[in-house]
Amino acid sequence: MAATEPAAPRAGAMALVAERDIVACRQLVRKLAQELKFSLVDQTKMITAASELSRNTIVYGLGGEMRWEIVTEGLRSGLRLAFEDHGPGIPDTALALTDGWTSGTGMGIGLSGSRRLVNDFELHTVVGEGTCVTITRWR
Amino acid sequence: MDRIPILKMGRCLLVTIQVDLLDQTALALQEDLSQRIAATAAHGVLIDISALEIVDSFVGRILASISGIAAIMGATLVVVGMQPAVAITLVELGLSLDGVRTALDVERGMGLLQAVEQSHGGD
Lengths: 139, 123
Prior knowledge:
The structure holds 2 protein chains of 2 kinds.
Chain A: E1 11-16, H1 20-35, H2 40-59, E2 64-73, E3 76-85, H3 93-96, H4 110-116, E4 120-126, E5 130-138
Antiparallel strand pairs in A: 1-2, 2-3, 3-5, 4-5
Helix pairs in contact in A: 1-2, 2-4
Chain B: E1 6-9, E2 12-16, H1 23-40, E3 44-48, H2 57-72, E4 76-80, H3 84-93, E5 101-103, H4 106-119
Helix pairs in contact in B: 1-2
């Protein structure tokens, strides 16, 4: 980080490769949500969603990255997180967003559940190319 | 890898989770607890999660599975100390922790385990 930086960076990225990165991702999202003065419940929801999605990126997407950005829209500000991998992609997104559906060993509520924890949720996936899930929570 | 300590008190096993849980650490706890229940013939297991700032579907699934394993081995599991923000988030996530007994704090959790013990008449 540059010493002359005028303010905290408004965007950044971290690699999601190994399981311990899930813990690091939660810690980074907690720090950002606290800086944005999210309420404790909103912080907890955003950290939990990040935990679910970073695990998906690592376990199902075979690794990738999380990009974060502090966004503003009029008077409101929020935190946007994008979880991107270059894994197998999701053949049936409607099915993947159904509670209880799982392609692996989980409970199948990672995607559908984290959608309920945030304000905006976008899922882009191409079979054979990868998946990107973008979530935003406004303060 | 870190392992979470398991304490024995009378016929109960006590676990306090004080670290941000790695998935592997949670899995190791499940294994360690089943072995300790078998080795000590414990009747009750109390897990204090008051220091946990989030419970996601992975940890939720482990807690439900520990509860099931304990029941099969003749022990009752009580999860205590969940923070209100964690409870709100869990429900919205869609995890109801079906079948997992919970109590507000360690004292109430121990009370619940004692009540279960008495209703079985002890042995």
